[in-house]
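Write out this protein's structure.
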Amino acid sequence: MNPNDEASKPSPYWPWLILCGVILVLDQCSKYWIKENFVLGQSVPVLDALNFVRAHNTGAAFSFLASDEGWQRWFFSVLGCSAAAILFWIIKTHSAQKVFCLALSLIMAGALGNVIDRLVYGYVIDFLDFHWAQTHFAAFNLADSAITGGAILLIVEEFIKKPLPRSS
């Protein structure tokens, strides 16, 4: 066997799918626990700046389109599934790029976690309520955290891999 054959083999993509699956399970388990132990609107302090709260979001980030008549459930479900399919393909074709695939796995897990909620309940279960004094930020969940973390990783990776232009 030629040693160069081993170097030309594509990297496996299944570790990224396993990571996505683990995050997806953690997201769904956390939402199930909130659903089973909190009533809608109930809030319990956890830390000085964090409450667990049960909130339902029929819209997108920051409850965007939440007051619409229900079409957004299907729109965001199709959008999330389409994004996950595209991310899967990108991960499969770029599996050797570790930071890139880590970021995409996080985003894919978050998208699928919120799609499951939309399809099962008709809304996304949010439960992390960070606040500073009397200012409460929009409640979110582990899926949202995964999406945000993945997006941050993509941005950081882009800054790291491209050298800054030199001034003349």
